Amino acid sequence: MALVTYISAITEALREEMRRDERVFIIGEDVGVEGGVFKATKGLYEEFGAERVIDSPLAEGVIVSAAIGAAMAGLKPVPEIQFSDFITPAMDALTQQAAKLRYRSGGTQTCPLTLRVCYGGGVGGGLYHSQTNTTWFAHEPGLVVVAPGTVADAKGMLKAAIRQDDPVIYFEHKKLYRSIKEDLPDGDDFVTDLFKAAVRREGKDLTLVTYGWTLQLSLQAAEKMHAETGAEIEVVDLRVLNPLDKDTFLESLAKTGRMLIVHEDHKTLGIGAEIAAIAAEQAFDCLDAPIVRLTAPDVPAIPFSAPLEKFYLPSVEKIVDAATKLLNY
Question: How much is the pTM?
Answer without folding.
Answer: 0.96
